[in-house]
Fold:
Amino acid sequence: MTTAPKKLKRKRPYLEIAGEILEGAIPLASALVHLREKPRMLDWLALGVAGVNALVKGKNVYDRMTTPSSREFFATRDEKGEFIWIECPEPVGRFVYQCIEEVEEHTRAPSQAWQEGPSIIMGRIGEETVGWEQQDGVRNRYNAATETPLVYLVRKRQEETYNEVSRRLWEKVEGNHLLLTPRGFETTQETTGGIYITPDIKKLSERIQKFIKTGEPRAYLLEGPPGTGKTTAIKHVVSAEGFRSLRANPAEMLDNSGSNADNSTKRNTLAVLAVTKPDVLILDDIDHHDGDDLLEILSTCREHVKVVLGSANNKWRLDGATLRTGRFDDHITFHKLPPEVIEVLLGKYKHLADQMEAWPISYITDFVHKANVLGEEVALTEMAETAERLEKIDESISRDADPESSNITNLIIGGSPPRTRKR
Structure:
């Protein structure tokens, strides 16, 4: 049942070409027949019009037979058999497209429905040429939300193109910190204004500096419940030393267009790093993105970034391959906030510090807001419900924890080790 329609679909272009040839040939044949009798001026005129029409139809057929489709065009190989074009991965493709300054060339490429073939367009970014296909009125599968087309780079000029795009990217950034989002690159602030920097966080920063001076890349995993200081530590490291940083969710470093079988996590990661050129790569919530893709990202990053900082609520959700040295070298565990930080956060309510020694930053801050608006007494009455929520979160995070399953030594940052739970 489905074979016949498929065959008809494959034959459709040739049937259309044959129909077009006949459409141009029939009037010409008719005009020639009339000239066999006593030709009139109108017959000669008809012959001329039919001849021009046949030439136009023939030229259209020739163009369609010789002009490659957009897929064939961007799959062209040079005399050595290497591809001339390379597909730009989705994570950086949106920004590359935004950098295009002028359209250099515009060619209509045929498809199986010739009249609806996409346009092959060339553009320039400085001295570099890029290409893409565009079909009017059709949302491109590459990025339906913004209708950004799939961009191709000249393979031999790929490095130069990324360098030019990188220069333009950082010209638009206020500061040294970027965030990779589904919409592209955005500026983010990695400052620690108003937050107390503990001696342990300073020790972490000094430790990272020592390894940087040796020229060896190193990856650090910061693990612990939400609100215990992981984000503060990361912000301090990247801001205190003036590092150029990129913060990303691992999922955003993958190419989800599915447009080319040659897509790979390594190629996409390399493209992101080639454009942003960070000193520090920050990977958020990696315990939600376990698997081969995460391993590929980590292996690639270590070859091109000085420092990798990953954060996780529970590292035991990750597999052993991710935890071992060579992926994450040092594991830094944040169990709870140091007392001096809690007192700073509480301010005038610091006399309650002992009651909130196990509370994360977000809950302490919320208590202070409630106390300032509703009064300390009302805020205290609501602490019981908050404490119950904290207990459930704590149980959820530690449920899968199994410290005995790893031989890696943790660096304890702030507070004492977590309580042992009975099972």
Q: What stands out?
A: The two ends are 60 Å apart (CA to CA). The first helix runs from residue 3 to 35. The chain has three domains: 3-66, 74-172, 175-423. The CA atoms of residues 334 and 413 lie 5 Å apart.
